[in-house]
């Protein structure tokens, strides 16, 4: 063990705990049973088998209220691996469940035996027929697919609120629809073809002209069984009519029996049955979608009503006027959404009975948009709208930022309301549909039923399609609360079916949640046909038992998860998974959701249990060390949970008092540290990369990998000893060269001015000269200490830089321009909690400006571009995302290049100061997709605006990234 390796006990929860009834039992502490682990490892290879108890726990939870711990998790890379797992399960009598994003709300992605991760190695989008179709792999998120299609003016039909995280495989397997899909734009209607693996291992490509012939040869009994079921259904006129009627409104409860009516061959029937089958019929390995036009002329309004029923009554008027979306939100939803960034704070004061409709029209052109707006105005004129708080306008707008804010509030329904639930309670998301004409009555009946059972639920939904969602919070650790929920569900299901003839699951699919009520909705004849269909396709019951079909009347009460209280920053988490696609360590160790899930399991355990000890042993590296600390999870999370901050706090907890003192001394003597670092980098050029890699590698083994950076060949040479000479007289701004730009020089082979020289030159050229203070050496944005959790050192440097900046800027009269986005973020925002009261007052007077904003807003309007490079690819950093200046990066780049590309897979590089030198595997994993996209072609320039991120991208791509301000200087140089 390295000399200074932190002890796992430092992260042991310090609060008193009572063992939870749903804790992982002690006999699971060793993880996967040895024989199962050995057999799957021999079959697939060790890197594809996750077996530690921490692996099993982090996959046990998803966005649903259920929690089942698998025996093992496998991570297949291709169809051969999938077939091997299915064959193994058949031979051993085991069960298999597929899981992609884990955003499902009803437990259908949870298994108790072999859980198969079909996200990690299953991403990719291929555009076909100039965008008319797209071939998409199942681990690709809806948002990622639409980003590619947008270039062709197209998009997918399904548009679930979880598009940022949910994957195509899950969307198709659940027939998820969303805001605008209804019954005509969902997966069932827009999937052109599927490739899938049946439980037997047979692969079917429904687009293959010979697919039926091949299937008949491989699976004759399956083909015969499907055609016999088709004949039986078609011979029953009453049943046929009932099936057709059930799909006139949104319905994902049970299997798509209309597939037997719509398909004429076994392959066509299977293509329909696979949609909405929830992984119980096979694995969908590829989907070809028929895409839809992306109408870019958008008009939207958020209209407020005195009651939920009044809002519901207005819905038909907007649908008749041509609205593509009419979204309903009740008062609880509206008030909870104030936790979402950008939502007006005065919504917190809305009356409880208030409701709102988010109405949107989309048109391909200006005349179409104007026609829709006239129709919308006519509808609004006849409504009795209310304005209970000042921010409400009740007007239609074309402003993209405002419209985006409306949708952000709406899409945060589950997470915002869930985040505001009482601590320790479990969240249930219900989803049902009624004929749209009965929506107002259904709302009234739902509110009455909730009151009878003591629930104060939040309600929202796709009102245009008669589809409502509501949330219930209860304590799964209390039997009385579980009984109350059970009684409500019994009454709710009967109400929906018997009074409204509705769907118990409109778009979230049956899962475990509604399986016991399937027969209530469909009746015994249709339900039995679903059981027989399952028997024909999966006769051995290998795939996802107890999902969709379950004869246990209390199956929906089994596996309800408790939510023990954890650290305050992470406690609001409802485990939705929206954070995961943004996380740099997603494909390496853990995600933000999983970090919180693991922490919750520790809280379920009694102090010192074998399971807790095993979790703590893994948590240091898997959760704390490999967190980049970039906090992009906070941006993705609708309620702003910053798991990165939580991990920084854990780093602080692991520090010994001696380490904290050394970090503080380093901060106090940073001028000497800075000089030494620059000299060391300069000396490294003469020593050679191989020797330095060897020396630092040995030091890391002897001391601790998280303390000693590893030398990387991509590290540039030293910066010049002297910064450019400037004058304070007449300066338009104070220019603060970040310490990384005072230590590290330009990329290898770069010719031209350094970054400080470029900023000074281009600012003067624009008539906005900048001044570099003579005493910047020894100051820093404090991110070095902040990112590692060294609170004392962080406080020293945070206060020093603010005091210095206040003096340099003449008490805030001049802006402070910072030439590295992470340093801008540090000085502008991250130092604040560590300042003294007096220095917080000084900080309020500062105007901290990122160099990108300075260049785009202040310099470009005054400059003449004399030459442009051909093409440029950009790397927007996570700090730019936090600062909101990604558009300024693009603006400056577009002034310098004929073609500017931001990769669809651009994300945090995870270099994170020096974390990419402490854990180079983190940066390698985080940048893999972006690097592959960048290297798919050649560019003339590789641009960003943060030196350490540029080094990270150099390592990832083999290219030389540099600041866009250096390119701007070249483009405008006389």
Largest sheet: 6 strands, antiparallel
Helical coverage, percent range: 40-55%
Span from first to last CA? 59 Å
User: What value does the average pLDDT take?
Assistant: 94
Continuous helix count = 39
- Based on secondary structure, the structural category is alpha/beta
Low-confidence stretches: none
Q: What is the alpha-carbon Rg in Å?
A: 29 Å
- Please count the beta strands (DSSP E, at least 2 residues each): 25
The outline comes out as globular
Q: Strand order of the main beta sheet, please?
A: 12-14-13-16-17-15
- Amount of beta strand: 5-15%
Secondary structure blueprint with pairings:
Elements: H1 34-44, E1 49-50, H2 53-58, E2 72-74, H3 79-92, E3 96-99, E4 114-117, E5 125-128, E6 133-136, H4 142-150, E7 154-155, H5 168-174, H6 187-190, E8 191-197, E9 203-205, H7 211-218, H8 220-234, H9 237-246, H10 259-262, H11 266-274, E10 283-290, E11 292-293, E12 297-305, H12 308-320, E13 325-330, H13 331-336, E14 355-363, H14 366-381, H15 400-411, H16 413-419, E15 426-433, H17 439-452, E16 458-462, E17 467-474, H18 479-499, H19 518-537, H20 592-604, H21 610-625, H22 632-636, H23 643-654, H24 657-668, H25 670-687, H26 689-702, E18 733-736, H27 739-743, H28 755-765, E19 770-771, H29 783-788, H30 791-808, E20 816-818, H31 821-830, H32 837-844, E21 848-850, H33 851-859, E22 869-874, H34 878-883, H35 886-896, E23 897-901, H36 915-918, H37 920-934, E24 941-944, H38 947-957, E25 962-963, H39 964-972
Parallel strand pairs: 2-4, 3-4, 18-19, 18-20, 20-21, 22-23, 22-24, 24-25
Antiparallel strand pairs: 1-2, 5-6, 6-10, 7-11, 8-9, 8-10, 12-14, 13-14, 13-16, 15-17, 16-17
């Amino acid at each position: 063990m390295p000399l200074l390796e932190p002890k796992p006990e430092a992260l042991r929860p310090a609060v008193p705990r009572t063992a939870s009834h749903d804790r992982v039992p002690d006999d699971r502490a060793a993880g996967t049973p040895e024989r199962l682990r050995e057999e799957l490892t021999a079959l697939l290879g060790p890197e594809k088998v996750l077996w530690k108890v921490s692996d099993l726990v982090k996959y046990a939870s998803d966005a649903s209220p259920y929690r089942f711990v698998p025996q093992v998790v496998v991570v297949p890379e291709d169809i051969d691996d999938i077939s091997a797992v299915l064959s193994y399960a058949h031979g051993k009598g085991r069960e298999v469940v597929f899981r992609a994003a884990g955003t499902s709300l009803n437990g259908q992605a949870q298994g108790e035996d072999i859980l198969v991760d079909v996200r990690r190695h299953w991403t990719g989008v291929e555009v076909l027929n100039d965008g008319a179709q797209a071939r998409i792999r199942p681990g690709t998120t809806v948002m990622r697919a639409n980003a590619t299609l947008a270039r062709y003016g197209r998009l997918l039909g399904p548009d679930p609120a979880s598009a940022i995280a949910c994957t195509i495989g899950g969307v198709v397997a659940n027939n998820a629809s969303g805001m605008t899909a209804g019954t005509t734009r969902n997966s069932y209607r827009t999937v052109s073809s599927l490739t899938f693996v049946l439980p037997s291992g047979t692969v079917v490509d429904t687009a293959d002209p010979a697919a039926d012939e091949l299937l008949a040869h491989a699976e004759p009994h399956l083909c015969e069984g499907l055609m016999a079921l088709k004949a039986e259904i078609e011979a029953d006129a009453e049943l046929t009519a009932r099936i057709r009627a059930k799909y006139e409104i949104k319905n994902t409860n049970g299997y798509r029996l209309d597939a037997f009516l719509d398909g004429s061959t076994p392959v066509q029937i299977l293509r329909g049955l696979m949609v909405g089958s929830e992984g119980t019929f096979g694995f969908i390995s590829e989907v070809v979608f028929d895409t839809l036009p992306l109408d870019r002329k958008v008009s939207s309004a958020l209209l407020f009503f005195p009651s939920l029923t009044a809002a519901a009554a207005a819905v038909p008027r907007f649908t008749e006027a041509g609205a593509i979306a009419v979204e309903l939100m009740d008062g609880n939803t509206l008030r909870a959404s104030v936790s979402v960034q950008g939502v007006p704070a005065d919504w917190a004061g809305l009356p409880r009975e208030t409701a709102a409709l988010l109405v949107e029209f989309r048109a391909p052109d200006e005349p179409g948009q104007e026609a829709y707006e006239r129709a919308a105005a006519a509808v609004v004129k006849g409504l009795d709208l209310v304005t209970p708080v000042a921010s409400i306008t009740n007007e239609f707008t074309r402003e993209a930022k405002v419209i985006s804010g409306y949708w952000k509030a709406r899409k945060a329904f589950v997470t915002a309301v869930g985040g505001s639930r009482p601590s320790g309670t479990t969240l249930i998301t219900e989803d049902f549909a009624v004929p749209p004409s009965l929506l107002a009555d259904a709302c009234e009946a739902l509110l009455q039923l909730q009151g009878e059972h003591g629930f104060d639920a939040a309600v929202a939904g796709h009102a245009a399609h008669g589809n409502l969602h509501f949330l219930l919070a209860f304590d799964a650790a209390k039997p009385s609360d579980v009984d109350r929920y059970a009684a409500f569900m019994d009454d709710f299901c009967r109400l929906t079916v018997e009074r409204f003839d509705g769907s118990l699951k409109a778009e979230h699919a049956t899962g475990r949640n509604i399986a016991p009520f399937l027969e209530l909705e469909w009746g015994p004849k249709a339900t039995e046909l679903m059981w027989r269909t399952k028997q024909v396709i999966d006769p051995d019951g290998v795939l996802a038992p107890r999902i969709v079909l379950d004869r246990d009347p209390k199956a929906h009460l089994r596996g309800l998860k408790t939510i023990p209280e954890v650290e305050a920053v992470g406690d609001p988490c409802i485990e939705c998974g929206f954070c995961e696609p943004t996380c740099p360590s997603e494909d390496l160790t853990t995600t933000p959701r999983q970090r919180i899930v693991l922490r919750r399991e520790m809280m379920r355990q009694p102090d010192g249990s074998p399971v807790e000890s095993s979790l703590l042993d893994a948590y240091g590296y898997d959760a704390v060390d490999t967190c980049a600390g970039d906090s992009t999870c906070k941006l993705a999370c609708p309620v702003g949970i910053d798991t990165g901050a939580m991990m920084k706090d854990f780093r602080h907890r692991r520090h010994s008092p001696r380490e904290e003192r050394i970090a503080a001394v380093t901060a106090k003597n940073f001028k000497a540290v800075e000089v030494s670092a620059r000299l060391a980098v300069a000396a490294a050029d003469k020593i050679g990369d191989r020797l330095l890699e060897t020396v630092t590698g040995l030091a890391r083994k002897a001391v601790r990998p998280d303390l000693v950076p590893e030398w990387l060949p991509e590290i540039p040479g030293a910066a010049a000893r002297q910064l450019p000479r400037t004058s304070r007289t007449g300066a338009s701004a104070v220019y603060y060269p970040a310490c990384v730009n005072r230590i590290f020089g330009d990329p290898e082979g770069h010719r031209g001015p350094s970054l400080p020289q470029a900023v000074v030159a281009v600012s003067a050229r624009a008539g906005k000269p900048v001044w570099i203070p003579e005493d910047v050496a020894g100051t820093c944005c404090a991110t070095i200490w902040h990112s590692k959790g060294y609170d004392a050192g962080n406080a020293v440097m945070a206060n020093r830089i603010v005091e210095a900046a206040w003096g340099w800027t003449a008490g805030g009269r001049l802006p402070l321009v910072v030439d590295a986005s992470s340093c801008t973020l540090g000085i502008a925002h991250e130092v604040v909690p560590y300042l003294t009261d007096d220095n917080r007052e000084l900080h309020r007077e500062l105007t901290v400006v990122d160099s990108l904003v300075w260049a785009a807003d202040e310099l470009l309007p005054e400059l003449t571009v004399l030459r442009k490079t051909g093409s440029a690819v950009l790397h927007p950093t996570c700090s730019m995302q936090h600062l909101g200046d990604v558009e300024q990066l693009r603006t400056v780049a577009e002034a310098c290049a004929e073609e500017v590309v931001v990769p669809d897979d651009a994300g945090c590089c995870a270099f994170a100061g020096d974390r990419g030198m402490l854990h180079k595997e983190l940066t390698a994993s985080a940048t893999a997709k972006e690097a592959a996209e960048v290297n798919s072609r050649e560019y003339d320039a590789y641009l960003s605006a943060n030196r350490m991120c540029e080094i990270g991208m150099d390592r990832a791509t083999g290219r030389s990234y540099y600041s866009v301000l250096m390119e701007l200087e070249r483009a405008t140089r006389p």
